[in-house]
Amino acid sequence: xxxxxxxxGSSMLSTSYYGNLPKxxxxxxxxxxxxxxxxxxxxxxxxxxTNALFTMLRTLISLHKKVKPDYVAVAFDVSxxxxxxxxxxxxxxxxxxxxxxxxxxxxxxxxxxxxQDIGCQVLMDKDYEADDFAASLVKKFESxxxxxxxxxxxxxxxxxxxxxxxLWRVTDKDKVRDxxxxxxxxxxxxxxxxxxxxxxxxxxxxxxSEEGVYPENIVTLLSITGDPGDGxxxxxxxxxxxxxxxNEYGSLDAIYxxxxxxxxxxxxxxxxxxxxxxxxxxxxxxxxxxxxNKETVYxxxxxxxxxxxxxxxxxxxxxxxxxxxxxxxxxxxxYEMNSLITELRL
Length: 346
Fold this sequence. Notes:
The protein is an alpha/beta fold. The relative contact order is 0.14.
């Protein structure tokens, strides 16, 4: 069966950048101190930064050798001012994240151009995030006749896992080993022998075991628990009750229908919270918090849900992997990556 690999390029390049920084930059306490050591970051003789480029290319080469995907797409973020801010008015969304440092910003542009030059499909737009493109690709192309894999380090991609789509989540090697032991997986088990180091494959069952809900309910879960890293507020004080509520009712509408059926009647509300305690194991009642934060919870749902209906003009065959070796050699020569030229025998 053919394989379609969808890569979160922004996640991979950022991880590559911070994973290949000199200690003087990595452990500097202030931005000013970091900037003093930028000259120590891997770069060409002309001063172009290459630490993230080199590391990401090594990762892509390893993926190609081990996975041998038939189709590849790489999605990138362009701006934080996507529709979640402009249309939904969520100014807090990812507002706590610092702007990418100059050496990384420079390499984003370089990597996007390099991939396109060598014949790889790159998707990006100022109105959407990389995960929106990933979701739209999955929605359009997943089928029983295609093995689809999404590669990222971000946990919000759990919502894309299905019988035909699996998540390859990047994490540290020790955690991967612990997870494999926990779930009785090993290098000899089907599918795992070809996985690159530092990647754990999530199915619907492992998502449920780790998150407490199945992939189709991840967005509802996040709408209640929130995600501080992404600036998704959720409903404070309800995190431990979120998974039991989601599993019981299946949707926000159903949860709030049960609450609104009480019509504010104290006896009915007590009966509901008693049901939650006895049947769902929820000790501290989340009723008042959910009532007070209904608008925020529904906004959180919109922020957490990946947009899966971006028009994708390409056909599946447009994503077929046909690398222009001459263009690749030219790019690697420009960035003085002679070791990769040797490794690839270009």
